[in-house]
Design a protein that fits this description.
The chain has 341 residues and is an alpha/beta fold. The chain has eleven helices and 14 strands. It is 34% helix and 25% strand. Helix 1 crosses helix 9, helix 5 packs antiparallel against helix 10 and helix 8 crosses helix 10.
């Protein structure tokens, strides 16, 4: 490996595998050199699109000596087996969120990567939005004063389109439904802004969809810092013809409140001010946003430092989801430390 570039293979060549690979086109530190999925036509399409090799078997892919690392875009419940094999062959790992489907699998990934001395980065993208960076500075600079509570909602219509041909249809692939699949983005964003979660209470429901997973969840959280928070998420919420979906994140302090809409920007309400003040409008999205996290991964490997979102961070977020599932089943609040053992 040269000091200025890492060579990566991509495994899992569905829509998002292609999306992540296209994002690397904005990252000079990354070169895509190989790919693998079981479907030959997908391998051929990917190989031709990105001018890279294709491996015909998982074994030949993971043993490829031309790769310094891999990007995992496979189903959630396959992340661990792929990551363990990659670690055994000294490959650095960037995995799409969540780190894994279960707490136990997440712990195995972290342990095996630590043992092998390789980098494990988790693709929690939304904390990297410019608006979230802006809000983090506001929080750290004390502009909100004493923060009392936060609330977030990430909802879309994805659950209406799943069929038994999709791994997301099944509890094994997507436990917690929209909380694991999409709202884990806001779990991580709130963790980024306000620190670790101490305990949660949650309820799930199925309103419309026919799959095994629930299609709505409401979760209450207490953070270790004392901040209280809520997350709502639904898989049956309409989106606009242009693809706009619900993404809100608000926080309330004794000096100011902030209100973030993914599409409309950030406004604040400050002590002594009768009107909302627009404080942030422009954001990054799509390919550019994904490139930020992929560059951080590449830099962490090249500079021999931790990535911003480590396996331990990914484990925290998965533990919050599973604490919510446990809370819904038991009808009581559940501590994160209990879930982590």
């Amino acid at each position: 490996m040269v000091d200025s570039k890492i060579r990566l293979g991509v495994i899992g060549l569905g829509r998002f595998g292609f999306t992540l690979a296209h994002a690397t086109e904005l990252v000079p530190e990354i070169e895509i050199v190989n790919c693998y999925t079981r479907t030959e036509s997908k391998r051929k399409e990917f190989s031709e699109t990105f001018n890279c090799e294709q491996s015909e078997t998982f074994e030949s892919f993971i043993e490829n000596k031309d790769m310094d690392g891999i990007i995992i875009a496979a189903p959630n419940n396959r992340h661990t087996e792929i990551a363990v094999a990659a670690a055994e062959h000294g490959k650095h790992i960037f995995t799409e969120k969540p780190i894994a489907s279960t707490i136990a699998d997440s712990k195995v990934m972290i342990s095996e990567c630590d043992k092998a001395g390789i980098t494990l980065a988790v693709g929690h993208t939304y904390r990297r939005l410019n608006s979230h960076r802006f809000l983090k500075k506001m929080v750290d600079d004390g502009e909100l004063g004493n923060i009392a509570m936060a609330e977030a909602n990430y909802s879309n219509d994805r659950g209406l389109f799943y069929t038994p041909d999709n791994w997301q249809w099944f509890n094994e692939g997507s436990p917690g439904g929209p909380l694991m699949q999409v709202a884990i983005h806001v779990v991580d964003s709130l963790y980024y802004l306000f620190g670790p979660v101490k305990k949660v209470s949650a309820a799930f429901n199925k309103i419309v969809t026919k799959s095994e997973i629930p299609d709505v969840c409401t979760m209450w959280m207490e953070f270790e810092s004392g901040v209280l928070g809520t997350i709502g998420t639904s898989f049956i919420s309409p989106r606009s013809p242009k693809g706009r979906f619900t993404y809100l994140l608000n926080a309330y302090g004794d000096k100011a409140n902030f209100y973030l809409d993914r599409w409309d920007g950030v406004t604040t309400l400050k002590e002594g001010n009768d009107s909302l003040e627009r404080v942030f409008e422009k954001d990054i999205s799509g390919k550019e946003l994904l490139a930020v996290e992929l560059k951080d991964f590449a830099d962490s490997v090249l500079q021999k430092r931790e990535p911003e979102v480590t396996g331990t961070d990914g484990l925290h977020n998965v533990a919050v989801v599973w604490a919510a599932i446990e809370s819904s089943e038991r009808g009581e609040s559940v501590e994160i430390k209990e879930m982590l053992g």
